[in-house]
Amino acid sequence: MASKKRLFIEMGVMALLIGVTFSILLRQCDLRDILTTIRSADASYLALAIGCMVLFVFCGGWCVRVFFQSMGEKMSVGRCFRYSLTELFFSAITPSSTGGQPMQAVVMVDDGYSATATTAVLLAVAGLYKCAMLAIFFIIYALNRAFLQPQLSGMYILFLLGVAANVILIAIILMGLFCRKLVNALSAKFLNLLLRMKILKNPERAVERLNYRLNSFHECADFMRKHPLTVFRSFLITLLQRLSVLMVPYLVYRALGLSGIGVWQIMGLQLILLVSSDMIPLPGSVGVSESLFLVLYDAIFGKTLLYSAIMLCRGISFYLLLIVSGCSVLFTRYLNLRRKCRA
């Protein structure tokens, strides 16, 4: 009951944020002009953008599938999509995307996969996801520094905080995976500090949960050391996943009949947007992503096409995905309830 209540609250907050965001955006422009521009956009480029998001969803599940196949576990293509959509939906409606992987793990365990293996694999995937994003950014930034550097004016601090947060998270994951003694010692000290400060009300449960998390980290590290080729293959899939979603703004740019700015330059702008919005703990970065889009892409699309561009980019890369993933979660829930009623 509590989990259902929390889900409704999160969805309500998301709906409120979306409503406020679009009311502000539409107040500054003519909706009829936006719709006219969208209708005149090149449908082939928009279809490619939607195809990129299909690839993005599939790669999210495919990466998990590669790990499980290396363990001798089977996973169908349909399950790849379903697990990825589950992760994307709950990431979208929870602050800083904190609910995605836990709910994905719940669904996978319900399907019969080992809780230990699932936790280890999802930890590895999370680390690879962050590493892939930063690797792509630093390469693109190095190749397009003259173009991208001026775009950071006015949001440089937010961007640096986003980079720092991602680097720290990767460092924590790597330390948790490969520095067992250090992590155990630091975790024990931190737990004792919380106990002395009387922040934790149930110390036995806290110790149990900490040991479970640490064991998951260590098992994940052991698995990655024993399967380096699997890790490399998964990293390549994650790179493809990141590149697919970064292509959407460029394809919208071409769909609106524009040219002159290269694909790598627009992908660099989108990476700046994603890294900067990572610091804001709002569900799906709703409101923040739209605001940063207006700043970063103003000179790219111009005043006449900017709002049409943001509707198409965010519509394809986030809101369409939110609707599809939400329908998938509801349909999966319906099938599970029906199965339980028959049993």
From TrEMBL:
Recorded GO CC terms: plasma membrane
Pfam families named in the record: LPG_synthase_TM
Keyword set, alphabetical order: Antibiotic resistance, Cell membrane, Lipid metabolism, Membrane, Transferase, Transmembrane, Transmembrane helix
Membrane topology: Multi-pass membrane protein
MF term (GO), any: phosphatidylglycerol lysyltransferase activity
A single GO BP: response to antibiotic
Highest taxon of the lineage: Bacteria
Principal EC category: transferase
EC number: 2.3.2.3
Compartments (UniProt record): Cell membrane
Reactions catalysed: L-lysyl-tRNA(Lys) + a 1,2-diacyl-sn-glycero-3-phospho-(1'-sn-glycerol) = a 1,2-diacyl-sn-glycero-3-phospho-1'-(3'-O-L-lysyl)-sn-glycerol + tRNA(Lys)
Main location, first listed in the record: membrane
Family: Belongs to the LPG synthase family.
Descriptive protein name: Phosphatidylglycerol lysyltransferase
Higher taxonomy: Bacteria, Bacillati, Bacillota, Clostridia, Candidatus Pullichristensenella
Gene from which the chain derives: mprF
